[in-house]
Design goal:
Radius of gyration: 23 Å
Number of domains: 2
Low-confidence stretches: 1-14
Shape: globular
Number of strands: 0
Structural class: mainly alpha
Mean pLDDT: 79
Largest sheet: none
Distance between the termini: 36 Å
Oligomer: single chain
Length: about 500
């Protein structure tokens, strides 16, 4: 009996490893191929537009993000977490999303004048009205994406996203070149969403049935509503900085902030997104097995820290040559903001994994309660720092990130009896190695060479030094990363 149990555990572990490899690889391909193209497109457009054009779009960020969060409603998370989901559940959530999408688009459209007046930007009104269409478009793709995520099918998502971004990016660049200003950004955003939704419907053959179950909705919303409220609170907090900067400072300062945030988010948020989409369905499948959850959680935490920490610290170290070379001198005001936000986003994936654990264990109530506590602290930090200028304002995010990590780690760990010192020990060596690498890279800024050479030297020196440190101290995370890549290549061969 013991042998049979041992075989079952090994088989299950192999199954999780295989799903993780496939999921991470294809999720990474989907995320980074799309983001790299978007990154290149945004650089080209940024060189053609003014910081104030990005500031106008930044002013809409909080309203679009809130509406988009409402459209999902947290019900996609509930579908992934639910083991016995069925056709009735899918159709019920689909119709709910459509109704909410139309309703919010209408509200957004009607309130466009009020929002434009708030920012004292009359031309913002028409921009808002056109952007509201995206809320309806996005509502139509939620279920298709959810089904593909449950299947851990990121290959299909990669196809849809990549094609959409290429088409939308090409049109955005053409419009920016022709002098359309902010409308180049509006068109790019809308066309990407339209093509992506159409391709999801073409590639994922699920179609809604004429079913809406009140009991199904009640069960899913019971779990999803708490996630929704927590996500709304988080969205308001993140975009509150954009709102306050847009109101208190100039559109140019807001343009600096939004571009700096996009650069800082690029490595951290994408890796977090990859891990969330892979870890959530996998962890949900073993939600009743605490010992396995504990092992999987520790592996995910170590691996994400090993990848994200050096990327974020390295980005902060070479921020000046990177920005000046990529965006030209007119965007130099981004540099200190980018350095601050890079440190803030360093802990982002670790927090996301712990929040996944709370959802996997069905503790959306704890997820919501912690979100309220953290955001009260975060908002207090925001308004305390506001009188001291934009740099201190941004620095308050680092303090918030540390508090966020402490609370998520403490309460998340209690769910599976995983002590905090063990987790801190898991990531401590990675943090020290990354900080040492960052210090070496930062010295490159003082070498009297071109910005291009500084950037190249920083990337090469940073990569080589971090690899050597990992080898010398025999860090397990490097072995895990190599194992994941070899496992995927071996399977393809």
């Amino acid at each position: 009996m013991r042998c049979i149990k041992h075989i079952y555990i090994n088989f299950a572990a192999m199954d999780i490893k295989e799903k993780t490899i496939n999921g991470v690889i294809w999720s990474a391909i989907e995320r980074f191929s799309v983001q790299i193209i978007q990154f290149i497109v945004q650089i080209i457009i940024a060189r053609l537009l003014l910081p104030s054009d990005y500031g106008l779009i930044g002013m809409l960020a909080i309203f679009m993000a809130l509406a988009q969060t409402f459209t999902d409603g947290g019900l996609s998370n509930a579908l992934i977490q639910k083991k016995d989901r069925n056709e009735t559940d899918y159709s019920t959530v689909f119709y709910f999303n459509i109704v909410i999408g139309i309703f919010l688009a209408l509200i957004f459209f009607l309130c466009s004048g009020i929002i434009a007046e708030f920012y004292l930007m009359p031309k913002l009104k028409l921009v808002i009205q056109v952007m509201s269409i995206n809320l309806i478009i996005l509502a139509f793709q939620v279920i298709q994406k959810t089904i593909l995520t449950i299947k851990i099918d990121f290959k299909t998502q990669a196809k849809a996203s990549l094609i959409s971004v290429i088409i939308g990016g090409a049109i955005g660049i053409a419009m920016a070149y022709k002098g359309f200003g902010v409308w180049a950004l509006v068109a790019q955003f809308t066309i990407i969403n339209l093509f992506q939704t159409s391709l999801f419907w073409y590639l994922e053959k699920w179609r809604p049935k004429l079913i809406f179950s009140k009991s199904s909705f009640t069960r899913l919303f019971g779990f999803g509503s708490k996630i929704l409220l927590a996500n709304l609170i988080h969205t308001i907090y993140l975009n509150l900085y954009t709102l306050v900067i847009g109101k208190r400072f100039s559109a140019t300062n807001l343009g600096y902030y939004t571009r700096a945030e996009q650069f800082a988010q690029f490595p951290s948020s994408n890796i977090t997104g990859i891990l969330w989409r892979v870890t959530y369905p996998i962890m949900s499948s073993i939600q009743d097995e605490n010992q396995r959850l504990k092992q999987v959680l520790r592996q995910y935490l170590r691996l994400s820290a090993f990848i994200v920490f050096p990327l974020m610290i390295g980005l902060a170290a070479i921020a000046e040559p990177f920005i000046i070379l990529i965006l030209t001198e007119k965007w130099k005001g981004i540099v200190p903001i980018l350095q601050i936000l890079s440190i803030y986003y360093m802990l982002y994936p670790l927090n996301a994994i712990h929040q996944n654990l709370m959802q996997v264990k069905g503790r959306s109530d704890l997820f919501l309660r912690l979100e309220i506590i953290k955001k009260i602290i975060g908002i207090a930090l925001l308004f305390i720092s506001l009188p001291f200028g934009i740099y201190v304002l941004c620095s308050s995010l680092i303090i918030y990130a540390i508090i966020n990590f402490a609370l998520n780690t403490y309460y998340g760990s209690k769910l599976i009896n995983l002590d905090i010192p063990t987790q801190l020990k898991d990531i401590a060596r990675v943090l020290l190695a990354s900080a040492f690498m960052g210090a070496i890279v930062y010295i490159v800024n003082y070498i009297d060479v071109s910005y291009l050479l500084k950037l190249l030297l920083g990337v090469i020196i940073g990569g080589v030094s971090y690899y050597l440190i990992a080898r010398i101290f025999k860090m397990k995370e490097l072995e895990q990363l190599v194992s994941l890549v070899k496992g995927y290549i071996g399977k393809k061969a």
